[in-house]
Amino acid sequence: MKKIAVSLALSLALVGGGQAMAKDIRFSSGLTQGQFKDFTKEAGAAISFKNTAPAEPLGITGFEAGLEVSAVDISGNDYMNKAFGGNAPSYAVLPKLRARKGLPLGIDVGAMYSYVPDSNIKLWGIEVSKAILEGTAATPALGVRGTYSRLTGVNDLDLQTAGIDASISKGFLILTPYAGAGGVWVSSEAKGNLKTLSPNLKSEDVFQPRVFAGLQVSPFPLFHFTGEVEYQERPIYSLKAAIGF
User: Which positions carry the signal peptide feature in this UniProt record (predicted)?
Assistant: First the structure.
């Protein structure tokens, strides 16, 4: 837990400093097919739609809106250095706007948008979730969810993800821990300068499992924090602050 808290604090500090990912994705040299596959896995994990919510539904009158930041260590890989013009940052840090709306029958829909300042990195995503068990004071909630996300603004790459997962949660006073597992399909295609540098690169379509766990803390009415750690190729840390009812 201490490591998670430190990583979340680091991600917020990096976003606040504005320099963690203030770099364009623009390939400085070509990739082998194996490097492109590895890059696809890690980049797909970074942009995939994060959970950051318990399993219980918002309800037909429910609504949530907030700010989220996710951070993943991308250091130590030659293909990441090439993707960032030969000088990749240590952490990929993605600030996001998030919103969710409750619908009838235990269904929630949501959307996400991210723009990394001073870079060409933008992404958006959508989610649909369904509560199988809505949960009570004595029993947990159980839900399933489908997601989609897409990277935009990067001329050298077409990258998108689709995911499905299931999660369980149980509230205790102001605390609601949750956990879940699922999988993500990642699709990528070289374009622009990357295609010029590596004309023989074929598109990649990969599937990768993911697991996640988190804790929502609601210290005040209509306001809550959510911290989450996900493992998908690498650990990914997320923190969300939101208002909701």
Answer: 1-22
